[in-house]
Amino acid sequence: MPRILLTGFEPFGGETINPSMEAIKQLNLSSFPSEIFFYQVPVAFYDSSKFVIEKIHELRPDIIIMIGQAGGRKDISVERIAINLDDSQVPDNNGVLPKDDPISIFGESGYFSTLPVKSIVENISKVHIPCHISNSAGTYVCNHLFYSVMHELHERSMNHVKAGFIHVPYIKEQVVHRSHLFSLETHLITQAIDIAIRTTLDSLSIIYKASYPARI
Ligand code: PCA
After folding, report:
1. Catalytic residue among 22, 144, 152, 167
2. N or C: which end of the chain has fewer CB within 10 A?
3. Active-site residue 79, yes or no?
4. pTM greater than 0.90
5. For a pLDDT cut of 90, what percent of the chain falls above it?
6. CA distances for 162 relative to 4, 14, 98, 154, 169, angstroms
7. Which distant-in-sequence residues (6+ apart) come within 8 Å of 52 by Cβ?
8. Ligand 1 mean position to 187 CA, how many Å?
9. Which residues line ligand 1 (CB under 6 A)?
10. How far is the CA of 25 from the centre of ligand 1 (A)?
């Protein structure tokens, strides 16, 4: 059975919830033909990547899907690329405020997601949830985590692991006093994550599929 590492973030920037975790908690984990391990990650440049990289080596997942909040965006953004840059206007939850710092001095300038980003967007769009490919995960903690994970997989020759990042908008509860901001119902974000997981599972090699008689 494939193993999936799924991560969301703790709240940050004065919010009391983070839609990534709220949505992940509502997934029906037993409905997937896989083992899913999910964690809440600190919104901290260095601690986030340290935590997730440790989990990768402990759990040896086949798929890594990282989810984060992109407040103000109007759709589910399936990120295509992580860039080698930390540059922040606001401190992270540990007070760290990097300016124009490379994430890895000798690392590549960027790494592409190895999730099937186009199929994920297509399948989420089919159920009328707004969804697009995004070409920038920003330069804050989400991009840092995304880049660090892709770099680790590259450096350790773990290229068989499919990994990537999805940004999600605010949920309704976060915008009650800011109704001009876009938001989605939590259950729609949960459904989008569910579809992203299933689409990625479907894209795994035939060897894996062969171990699920029910899916052939
Ligand atoms: N979003 C932030 C960091 C944590 C989160 O949920 C970002 O987009 O970088």
Report:
1. 167
2. C
3. yes
4. yes
5. 94
6. 10, 33, 28, 11, 23
7. 5, 7, 39, 41, 64, 66, 145, 148, 149
8. 20
9. 9, 12, 18, 20, 43, 68-70, 138, 140-142
10. 18
Mean pLDDT of 116-130: 98
* Model pLDDT for residues 37-84, shown as the tens digit of each residue: 999 999 999 999 999 999 999 999 999 999 999 999 999 999 999 999
CA of residue 38 to ligand 1 center, whole Å: 17
Is residue 54 part of the annotated active site? The answer reads no
Q: What distance in angstroms lies between residue 142's CA and the mean position of ligand 1's atoms?
A: 5
Among 69, 73, 76, 139, residue to substitute to test ligand 1 (most atoms within 8 Å of Cβ): 69
pLDDT at 215 over 80: no
pLDDT exceeds 50 at position 216: no
Place of tokens 């994970």: 149
Give the pLDDT confidence of 81-94 residue by residue, as tens digits.
Answer: 999 999 999 999 99
- Average pLDDT over the chain reads 95
Dihedral (C-alpha) 87, 5, 165, 45: value to the nearest 10 degrees? -10
Contacts 24+ apart (CB under 8 A), 96-104: 96/44, 96/45, 96/46, 98/45, 103/144, 103/147, 103/148, 103/151, 104/147, 104/148, 104/151
CB neighbours of 61 closer than 8 A, spacing ≥ 6? 3, 4, 5, 37, 161
Domains of the chain: 3-211 (3.40.630.20)
